[in-house]
Specification:
Chain lengths: 664, 508
Amino acid sequence: MSLYPQSQAYGQMQNPPMGYPQPVAPPGNYHYPPPPPAQPYHVDPHTFRRDYTAQLAELTVNSRPIIQNLSMIAQDHTHYADVVTQCIEAHIRRVPPWMKLPAFYLLDAISKNVYDPYARHFSTVVVRLFIDTYEQVDPSTRSKMIEMLTTWRNGAPSGKELFGVITQLAIERHIWPDDASRNVAVSSSPKGPRRRINRRQRRRQSSSRSPPGSSGISAPQVLSELEIVLNQKERAFQLNPYDKVAQNQIAILHQLRKLVVQGVSQEELGQILHQMRTTLSQPQSVPPPAAIPPPSAPMPPPHYGRPPFPPGSSNHLSAAAPQVSYPPAFSQQVYQQPKPEQVAVPDVANVSTVPPPPPVENIASIFSALVKAGLVTGSSSSTPTGAGATAREPANRPVNSAETATETDKQYRKAILSAQVKLNSADIIRQRTVLPQFLYDQLPGQCKHCGIRFSDSSIGKQKMQDHMDMHFRQNRKAGQATGRGHSRGWFISVEDWTNDSEVDIKGKGRAGAPRSMKAAAAADAAKVDAELRALYVVVPPGDEAKRLSCPICNERLEPEFMEDDEEWVWKNAVNKDDKIFHATCHAEAALSKTALAVRLRSEVSSRSRSRTPEARRTPPKYDSPSPSRGVKRKAEDDESKTSQPSEQSERTPPMKKVAISPTE
Amino acid sequence: MAYERASDSGQRRSQEWTLAAETEYRFELDAGTSLAIKLLRGRAEIFGSELVEGKIYLFYEECKAAVFTWQGCTIEISQPSTEYISEETPMSAYANLHVAFEGMRVRALLDAQVTAHPEKATREDLEENRDGPHDAPRVLILGPENSGKTTITKILVNYATRAGQDWCPMLVNVDPGEGASMLPGTLLAAPISTPLQTSTPAHTLGSAATSAPSHISSNALLPLGYWYGHAETKRNPLLMDRLIRNLGGNIWDRWDTDLRGRASGLIVDTPSSFSTSSAANNEHRHNLIKACVDAFRINVILVVGHEKLNVEMQRMYGSRVTVVKIPKSGGVVELDSLYRARVHKYQMHSYMYGERVNPPLGLPSLADASPLTGYIIGGEQSTDLTLAPLSSVINFDDLSIWRIGEETMAPTSALPIGAARVVSEMQPLHIDPSLPGSGLYNAVLAILAPPHPDEVERYDEEILDLTVTGFVVVTALDIPNKRLTILSPNQGSLSGRTAILGSFEWQE
């Protein structure tokens, strides 16, 4: 979740300058904390401290390049974590209130991205620093600080509190003195098997006990968190205006806010708050962080995956906790059902094969629940009945940005053509001074690392952000790779080269390009697969108990209950010629075009039914891209085309990549 | 203009130079020395690649280059071998060329967009595009030895990448003595999206991808190359001709789907033998120029400071190609064959082992330098640019080694009357490493891409049309045990691969 300014805010003052001069005071005016004991390093700590403080002094506005640069330096000098910590603390305490927030963003960035040892170092000072700062700054900065604070709840790579639970609580108690934040303590208590709660059991619990979080939640607290989520969503929406999911969520959030302002009961406040936090920690619904990549590739599990129980009721939960072990991906899913009527959950044998529902359901479900409870008058236009479906829509690049791109093209074209340079020997040697204007004046934004320039249009700023992110990634890679030797790669094949235009243009890490082609192919395959799996067929009334197998792979199709539509469905299924197939199987068979598969598809499925479902499964092929170099996507396709019919004809168990949910 | 000053450390002597607008600071390094340049104020560029203020750029391995400024700047330098400031540069002419090419690119892009999406084109677009079709600049640079062809190529490519238009011009090198981002002996094409860096003659035109992270994509190029195997074009002009046409075909295949790449055009750097006429090679020379013009569909020929060649080209291609004579830079250094041999060693070493840089005396070494010091080596900030090749022992049978044509090829005219050639220039000959005189010891071999997987599609001379996968060096030959010791750039297996021998050797 990005807290850093988006492209709109780039390079601008976060807060009015209030007449302060640009702080370019010479370093001699700074007050230095006493230097740490001398350490046997090549760059001596005094020099480092001086240099870092000098660079820190440039952090007067919320500037991503500066923050990234400073955090890269911190990353490279973890042995001076204490110096960095002291420098940043001194800086925050020294600068006027309107300059404190960017420094906090830096602290935040370093702690989240480098984590060890910085989080440890900062945790000793961050409580006083945060509270002192909070009291000095204006309300809008405060809300930004709260926004940052909430991300600290699960900012650590493990998904726990960034600076530890004690620190987090100490700050939250101060900011929300009504002790509402104690549920942080609950949520961070040992999870272990208790997190692995069977979905059904959790539902039973939610039906049998009183609604959660009913103690001491104030409307202002809920409102402030609501605002934060809303802000995030709106920013995400601005970045990606065609994201219907985000649009829906924003509409819902607005309604919720209205609701809270009008006044609701404690119980509902608790529900809303809980849902809010669940959404907040559902990073999938937020676009990838624009500022700094998440600390680790897998997103930390949502921290508020469990309802915030009143302190007394937690033993009730642990008593009911089963010892069933579910895969972690499943335990991340949040099935909060505020409405008791929906608890009648069918006995589904194999819950874990259910693909996780799109995260949008979290907001959608609370809203629909509230609609049913009569709290909200649901207007059909904004009711997110299709929210789950829209989640599947690829987030297309905004059309209007393409339009502005052609507009920029046109401006550049006009400017270049107006120079009227003729391509002949005489005109070429005429003295003109047109080029510097194109090289420098029209591209004012310069990367401080490699000198590449960008225009100050919104597209140019976006490009520059991407470019800075590239540097950050490469630095990170360089940091992780120390100790491992590097070597010159092989050159790519003609086929890769001629089809490779995208990879070469974007200025990404070239080193892994042959692999990234493969990764792209895998991503494509995964996307297609996810789309297929999202297909479903509604079970005809009365057929719920009917045993049905996919005619191609012979595995059983398990009916499941779709909460959104309140219907029984077969997931990953298509109905072709009155027969139900696994969508993935059918797509693959259609691809293979072999006579055998065609015959199988047209065959009556009765034969298959008698077959025992095969439990053995191979992982999907795209999960383990072959490390060998020359293998191409085409080759893999060929392989799957040829291998499938032979398996079928030998009547071997289906060694297929079907019917495997990503949760396995 | 320049004054010396003792730096803080007292040992190191550094110099500040203030350059007026449109002048350049030129330097030439001796073997074993390095140079650090820091831009203190203003804006400066090296062969079209902009410098960042405050960073320390390192140059090494007999690098010869120039810092040019359009609007004036102050730089701090340390210990060059030869240095001077020149106020007479042809940069203004090169800039005009670039602007003219940009004009062609923007029109070509509009053309391509209107053709690809006629429904989206506005009336204004169509109006602007009415006198089409417009072609992207596809430029062939010709000139005699030491006329700065490669530098002009670099400047023009770099300016295109700096236009802020996402251009991705194709850099083509058909000078087999040059090497560009591969090794000498190859003809190659590489799309360039960020400025080519200058730090060492081992990488004048970018460097090929490694497994290390890189910040500048021109340091991690994925070129497409064919192995010619010799430094001189006269060794096997027929093979050159064929490889040039192969390269051109692949570029056009790639541009089929890449509109912006196609609109960015291409720039071809050529060997000086294309331009120096002598009775013996005149026919080959014209054939090779023609092969380039055809294969790359050249529409602009730049002739660097050579009256006669300019007239010659005007006469031959003036009807369909724009021929422009451009001035030569006075900063061009005369390079002798010994220098080229040393550069070849640097290139081989850099291909296998990466960069080996020692900052000038008085500056902190790379290992101790913090990012705050701001060392930049060929555009990269990383302090560790070394690579680890793999030395392995393989059986003779693991690698099938070939040579194209006879090693010494007498001209056809020298053959007895009526006698036909036994081995043609294009015939692949298998090499048996166990025979004496195989020429494998210390030889540089090009590993080729695998042949067509389908037997039916294969043909006798397919080996001539396979691209290069990488280079290896035979470091030891054990004939009794039928084993080769091979130094290869990475851990990839070589068994079953095909390799071609050229005339290049390398010894560490």
